[in-house]
Structure to design on (608 residues):
């Protein structure tokens, strides 16, 4: 019988420091994509690692838990951004001075999106995750992910193609 | 623009954000073990909470002195991140031996442990965490520096009152609940056999218990800002306890019924309630509140009406709380205002039919909360219990007309009516979105 496909079983890091060495860079990048702010991304990742650290003994898959924690911390960051700031961003997003949207303008428009929409877009178009994985990270159903993506794209189109 | 084009632009925008974050990270050369600068910055916003945590611990521990489980020695605050508390060491005398442990806030314990290993009197114990459970009891955990990865060995020390009060909202004919100790149920009950006879409700309640003591059961009916007792009964705890109440029909609308339990345990028991579960099958859906340790709600501010309402402070000063009832978990978000005495008064809003819920953390100094909405001012609620019980108070405020999106000013008042702290809360219309992440901490089954 031919051998079946080889399944890669992720090994559990020995401690948080090892997990940190393995995952920190990628988590910072993911957080950067999720929150759109380099400074905040550091904090988000730090918070996530602290959460993993606190629950190390009870977490079976630290890397997976870490990614959930990053997404969760990113959402918390989004929540703590003052509403006035978000309003300002929305105002900037809905009143573009040019139809040729630059990267920074697109970034502003993304930051004005509700977090579930931004997260769904980032996890799909940056991280390249399938809907079911995104749904697991966001704590919702796959159909909801598709809805977030659809609405997020529609909102961005309103800015890009007014 | 095609979707493909937009997707490419999005990928580029996200990649730019990721690059920027990675670049900044690389410049800082972060290491988990020695990331002191980042941790130091993280700790600053929590200094106030650390003080609150230590203050709460002082009161709780003081309450336990009569039981000689834990003694406390106050020492002047020493230098160090997050150690501005008036009490920073606790001598624990218990099953795990004795030792002199520093007190730090739960959130900063690990950071301190890694920043200053071996700095304490007991070189093996670098930090002490206190975790308050839903019933105001305290679990003391000691963080040891023995192993490369700090281990937590938990020293169970029961502090605080042994009376337990559970408030269960909207009990129904099939509601059930369990109080556990170290994952073992010590009291469970269910309400069954509800029937309606001549406009009245025949309600029976059944409990099983492994404890010795007495159980008071009180049924109250609450309206906005008021409540009245419908029935009460007391029975000794035993393997099987049954209560039967003949209650008037519950009016529709703003009335709701609350089942209030009070456990009185006989001397010598050390009850550590790690988990309170309340399950309700209303609407055909079972909800279990295991531990509302919501992601992002980094600091548990307090628990009022255990198993029903818990408030937490999120990073950045936000406040979140959860409410279990009617087969659903609802959450609200709000803001935290702090009094000048360092006590925390949290105000949060929760919307259902435009009702605003104000949640205050127990404080002897906060006598009432006043809400001002436009030209309308209304005092809502008084403190039901002081800091020693760690229960807060809950006040319902139902302004006329719609409030969504309107700013509301909430003022914490002292006994003499002077204002202690003020916070402006915006009643958010999108609270459901805000609450979505919090559900991760709640187990929903059925």
């Amino acid at each position: 019988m031919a051998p079946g496909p080889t399944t890669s079983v992720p090994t559990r890091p020995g401690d948080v420091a090892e997990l940190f060495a393995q995952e920190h860079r990628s988590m910072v990048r993911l957080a950067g994509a999720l929150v759109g702010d380099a400074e905040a991304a550091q904090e988000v990742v730090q918070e996530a690692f602290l959460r993993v650290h606190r629950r190390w003994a009870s977490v079976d898959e630290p890397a997976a838990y870490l990614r959930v924690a990053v997404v969760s911390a990113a959402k918390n960051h989004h929540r703590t951004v003052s509403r006035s700031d978000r309003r300002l961003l929305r105002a900037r997003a809905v009143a573009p001075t040019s139809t040729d949207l630059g990267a920074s303008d697109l970034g502003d428009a993304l930051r004005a999106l509700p977090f579930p929409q931004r997260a769904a877009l980032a996890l799909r178009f940056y991280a390249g995750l399938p809907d079911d994985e995104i749904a697991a990270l966001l704590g919702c159903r796959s159909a909801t992910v598709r809805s977030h993506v659809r609405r997020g794209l529609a909102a961005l189109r309103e800015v890009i193609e007014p | 623009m095609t979707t493909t084009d937009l997707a490419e632009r999005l990928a580029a925008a996200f990649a730019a954000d990721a690059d920027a974050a990675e670049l900044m990270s690389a410049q800082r050369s972060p290491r988990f073990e020695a990331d002191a600068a980042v941790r130091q910055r993280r700790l600053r916003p929590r200094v106030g909470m650390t003080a609150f945590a230590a203050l709460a611990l002082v009161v709780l521990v003081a309450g336990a002195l009569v039981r000689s489980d834990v003694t406390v020695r106050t020492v002047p605050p020493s230098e160090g991140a997050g150690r501005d508390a008036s009490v920073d060491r606790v001598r624990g005398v218990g099953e795990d031996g004795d030792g002199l442990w520093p007190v730090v806030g739960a959130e900063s314990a690990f950071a301190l442990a890694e920043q200053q290993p071996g700095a304490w009197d007991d070189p093996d114990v670098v930090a002490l965490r206190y975790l308050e459970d839903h019933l105001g009891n305290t679990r003391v955990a000691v963080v040891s520096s023995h192993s490369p990865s700090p281990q937590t060995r938990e020293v169970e020390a029961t502090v605080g009152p042994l009376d337990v009060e559970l408030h269960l909202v909207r009990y129904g004919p099939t509601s059930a609940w369990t109080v556990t100790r170290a994952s073992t149920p010590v009291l469970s009950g269910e309400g069954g056999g509800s029937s309606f006879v001549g406009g009245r409700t025949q309600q029976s309640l059944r409990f099983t218990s492994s404890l010795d003591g007495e159980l008071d059961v009180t049924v109250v009916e609450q309206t906005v800002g008021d409540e009245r007792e419908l029935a009460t009964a007391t029975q000794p705890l035993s393997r099987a306890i049954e209560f039967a109440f003949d209650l008037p029909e519950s009016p529709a609308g703003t009335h709701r019924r609350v089942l209030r339990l009070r456990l009185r345990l006989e001397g010598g028991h050390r009850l550590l309630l790690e988990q309170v579960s309340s399950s309700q099958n209303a609407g055909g859906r079972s909800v279990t509140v295991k531990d509302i340790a919501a992601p992002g709600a980094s600091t548990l501010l307090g628990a009022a009406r255990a198993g029903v309402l818990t408030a937490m402070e999120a990073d950045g000063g936000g406040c979140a709380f959860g409410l279990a009832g009617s087969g659903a978990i609802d959450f609200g978000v709000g803001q935290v205002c702090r009094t000048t005495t360092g006590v925390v008064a949290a105000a949060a809003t929760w919307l259902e039919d435009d009702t605003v819920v104000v949640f205050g953390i127990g404080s002897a100094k906060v006598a009432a909360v006043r809400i001002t909405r436009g030209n309308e001012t209304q005092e809502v609620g008084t403190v039901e219990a002081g800091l020693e019980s760690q229960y807060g108070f809950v006040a319902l405020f139902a302004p006329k007309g719609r409030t969504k999106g309107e700013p509301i000013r909430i003022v914490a008042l002292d006994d003499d009516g002077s204002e202690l702290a003020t916070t402006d809360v915006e009643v958010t219309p999108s609270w459901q979105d805000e609450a979505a992440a919090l559900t991760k901490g709640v187990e929903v089954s059925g």
Observations:
- The helical segments of chain A are 16-35, 38-54, 62-80, 83-94, 103-111, 115-126, 131-138, 142-160.
- Residues 1-10, 82-104 of chain A have pLDDT under 50 and may be disordered.
- The first helix of chain A runs from residue 16 to 35.
- Residues 34 and 122 of chain A are 6 Å apart (CA to CA).
